[in-house]
Fold this protein.
Amino acid sequence: MKLKDQVAVITGASSGIGAAIAQAFAAEGARLVLAARSEERLNVLARTLGPDSSRVLVLPTDVRVPEQIRRLLERTVEKFGRVDVLVNSAGIGLYAPYDQVIWEHFRDLWEVNFFGAAYAMREVVPLMKRQGGGTIVNISSVAGRYPLPYLASYCATKFALNALSDGLRTELARDRIRIVVVCPGRVHTGFHERAYHDAGEIVYRGNIGKGISAERVARATLRAVVRQQREVVVPAVLRLAVGFRILFPRWADWVTRTVIFRDVERS
């Protein structure tokens, strides 16, 4: 699959992984629809994507609001006539022991990480069926395959997103709609700073890895779309950790307790 002149809608595009994916797709000649809550940041990004402003549409969107997602897709079709790729990249984090989680934050986590993506998929599938196919990319996390303490709430949203993606992959195959799941490990973005910290700061220190760049995740996402891969773990070495947990769950729990509890700082 080539991205030249394909229409790609990217949520969470104002920063981090979403912005990096927009840049990677633009370099391949895609026409882009950039969605996030901050119109100012989206406009700044749009100006970096090339001189032809007619190939980029900026639409401020809060994925927690179904009516705004519906408007996002309607405006995309009005301007470009179709939706070839939907990238669900909007997401937030929550660091806290589960018994200290603020319930409003927990619900907001689900509204953004799961229900926003789920509703966007529900709305885009009929469009893609009518046009004969398309690709949906869900930016998940390794935490959606390997749960971690103090991140259980966040992990739950990503496990749910992975399960929905896996089920839809087979359900929609006959309609030529492909589902790609991208599971990054720790990424150097502003994600940690923007996350909820309901019980004071919780910092995973160096022993669990220093993280990768958003651009590396974007390159992996681009390859996955072009090659029509079903799931990508980046960096790839973390797939070993996921496999280890599947094969040896008790050992994995022991390793997680030993390493993470030693490696966490709380303030």
Summary: The first strand starts at residue 7 and ends at 11.
